[in-house]
Amino acid sequence: MSIKHRDRVSDVCAMIIMAGLVFIVFRVNWVIGASWQNVTYLANELASPVDSPQSWVLQTMAPFRYRLLFFSLVQGTWSLFFSQTDAYGFVMVFRFWSVFFSYALVIAFYFFLQQLNFGRRSAFLGVLLLLFSPPMFFAYIHPVHTREDPIAFLLIVLQLSLLLKGRMFAFGVVNSIGMFCRETLLLVPICYFIVSPDRLWLRFVHVAVPLITAFLIRFVLGFSSYDPLSLSAENVTFPYETAVGMFLVFGVMWLPGLAGLIKSWSSRDELSRPLRFLACSGPWALGLIVASHLILGRAREIRISFLIFPWILVFGLKWFQNNRTVLHQVIKDKLFWGYVLLVLLGSSGLFVYLNAHLAEYHDLLNTFARGCWLKLIVCQLFLTLVMFYPLFRSLTRTDRQDFC
Predict the structure, then answer these.
(1) Band of the pLDDT at 370, cuts 50, 70, 90?
(2) N or C of the chain: less Cβ packing under 10 Å?
(3) pTM of the model
């Protein structure tokens, strides 16, 4: 068997396993109470009459009315195969496209990581980090409110992949398509304009075209105003929930992701061209998305800031690669396991205390004061505290490896 054929077989096997993982994630959402679990739940998610989710009243409100891509796919497929009164058929179509684009996302991210010269095992690990991130693992559990987001995540991977391959026409087309999905998909064109060494007119075109597309969508559908600050006011009203929400965007992966990004940014001239672009644009992407999330949205909708996952997960994965020696040493360190035991006892005590006094903290955590979320918060806190140990060891190591 040739190497090329063996690699192809490995990719096919990985895609089959990833299909199973996507099924597990959706099954977990189903068990907990996904927004598409039944007609009533989906109608509530779409702000529609209780027995008519297909009305999709939410789509008549700004800014949702301009996000046509997912809405059109769902409504078009439902209209084609089901009667106009079949609410359950609408739920089935909504589920189908949600699963389809979630699977397309993990496949695209798997091959995007290979494009960045990660091996197949590392790329598969990256997919695991993606799928088990809180905004993906609990994507359809209140208060995440996932609808068109899997398409948005898929499109941002395609934007970066096409840009790094130098396929500028296709990059421009995807940028314009993105305006039919979410306005925040302007992120990659803006980062490209700011950090790319390409000619100014070319960078300007790739920002101007999607902006014009977004304007034309609003011109055709009619301009509607809304007050985004009314949503962000909750970030001030519930500061503890805001902190928890932003933490849960990546959970434990914030630490290796930011550590890897900082390291790569400081040595960006030594990186390969694709990683150099991600390193240089990383601080801008992080600042733009987190600021817009906190100023124009609610922190509890953790899917919003998750749009920067190509940066955080890529550099988090790179940090793990670069510190394999440290991680092997840490695993053999008895002091580390003593620290893990101490953190486990502390985290367990915290969970027992919060669970027993949930009523007192409900106003502080608001929608995160639920059984599944409370368990997730404590679990992610435990893993984050454990991660501090190898992170500290990596900062004090003497056998530095090149970060490239």
Answers:
(1) low
(2) N
(3) 0.93
